[in-house]
């Protein structure tokens, strides 16, 4: 009887992720044979100081030294596709300057028409110009790519404005839930709602943030703390009405209000009740 209970307890511990160990992950049975896609941010662009990976399944950021990947088979962007010719090397020893690689570690697939050799002789250049003149100035096709197998994508204006099916979308993160709404679909002008939880099971709510748009009272964001009975509201600027800038309210305790500087009829900036 005890052995059964111990086995059942061990099975539960192996399969259930407790709140105390949120980052626990079981070993992958496929190991190096599993292919996976990720996002690689290269340093030097967008003022990045170092290169790092973004794991799409979790949204977490990993540096090259801290990432959990074994190696890289290929990298691609909007310009080209590069294949790693030395996949047996660990990821920490890979040269990530694949665009300017001259060692043979990376091989590109698409030939860039802008990349031309500068060590050509002047005689060869003259001969090429003569040949181009005889043909009639036609440009050579560097790489004839096959047509796309999928038809041309078309999105109607109504679908584009909705942003997501039926105008609503919910995304779950660790200790967080984000809800998106299209413009003018909610009565109160709600466009995004972020719910932050205290636990990993998303039961105890710590904070709710609501973002608004196209409201008459210029309300932009409302933050609610249910267990503190506290509400914080931020308003946009308006020169004609609704001079309120920020509101902090705790039920049955106090209310603090800040106003914009262009409230000219009484020059009120701050009020507490």
Short characterization:
Helix content is 12%, strand content 28%. It has 273 residues and is of the alpha+beta class.
**Shape annotation:** extended
Q: Biggest β-sheet, characterized? A: 9 strands, antiparallel
Q: How would you classify the helix and strand content by structural class?
A: alpha+beta
Strand proportion: 25-35%
Overall pLDDT: 79
**How far is the N terminus from the C terminus?**
66 Å
User: What oligomerization state is this entry in?
Assistant: single chain
Q: Biggest sheet: strands side by side, in what order?
A: 7-8-9-10-11-12-13-14-15
Structure description:
With 273 residues, the protein is an alpha+beta fold. The chain folds into two domains: 92 residues, no CATH class; 116 residues, no CATH class. It contains three helices and 15 strands. It is extended, with a radius of gyration of 29 Å.
SSE map:
Layout: H1 2-15, E1 39-41, E2 52-54, E3 61-63, E4 74-76, E5 81-84, E6 106-108, H2 122-135, H3 157-162, E7 168-173, E8 176-181, E9 190-197, E10 205-212, E11 219-225, E12 230-235, E13 244-250, E14 254-259, E15 270-272
Antiparallel strand pairs: 1-2, 2-3, 4-5, 5-6, 7-8, 8-9, 9-10, 10-11, 11-12, 12-13, 13-14, 14-15
Descriptors:
15 strands; 28% strand; alpha+beta; extended; 2 domains; nine-stranded antiparallel beta sheet; 273 residues; 3 helices
